[in-house]
Amino acid sequence: MIRCPKDPTEFLKRETFEVSGIGGDNPPVVFADFSKIEVKNYPDLKPIGYNYSPKLDKWNTSDLASDIIYLGKNKLPFDQPNNIKSVYDYEAWREVASDARTYPLYSFRTIHLLLKKDQRN
């Protein structure tokens, strides 16, 4: 009989350090992957817990709403809800980087190009 090195009934949180409200002693963060889904209208965010009320001109957020939305190369055609962060592929992020709640996702290729550019300066 092979013994399992971990007890499946015991909860142990892995030790991490905090970066921008993720990790450390913070609760887990939920990512929604919309990199292959084009967001055209407000209702497109309803499945991840964001419901826009045009009458009140505000977003209603469910208790199970995603914390971060990964958009890849896609862009939102409207202002994002205040309590959600968005992650874009680096190339797309450069066009929307004016919002403090947006973050780039670097690929190995992108990092390589950035390092090459930095070495020329």
Q: Write down the secondary-structure element order.
A: EEEEEHEH
Average pLDDT value? 88
Overall morphology: globular
Residue share in β-strands: 15-25%
Give the biggest beta sheet. Answer: 4 strands, parallel
Radius of gyration: 19 Å
Report, as a whole number of angstroms, the end-to-end distance. 61 Å
Q: Percentage of helical residues?
A: 10-25%
Parts with pLDDT < 50 across at least 5 consecutive residues: none
Specify the structural class. alpha/beta
Q: If strands are numbered along the chain, what order do they take across the biggest sheet? A: 1-4-5-6
Count the DSSP helices: 2
E-strand count:
6
Describe the overall structure.
- There is one protein chain.
- Strand 2 and strand 3 form a beta hairpin.
- The model has no long low-confidence stretch (mean pLDDT 88).
- Helix content is 17%, strand content 21%.
- It has 121 residues and is an alpha/beta fold.
- The strands form two sheets. The chain has a four-stranded parallel β-sheet.
- The protein contains two helices and six strands; from the N terminus they run βββββαβα.
Short description:
The chain is built from two helices and six strands.
List keywords for this structure.
single chain, 121 residues, alpha/beta, four-stranded parallel beta sheet, two-stranded antiparallel sheet, 21% strand, globular
List the helices and strands and how they pair.
Elements: E1 31-33, E2 50-53, E3 58-61, E4 68-72, E5 85-89, H1 90-96, E6 102-105, H2 108-120
Parallel strand pairs: 1-4, 4-5, 5-6
Antiparallel strand pairs: 2-3
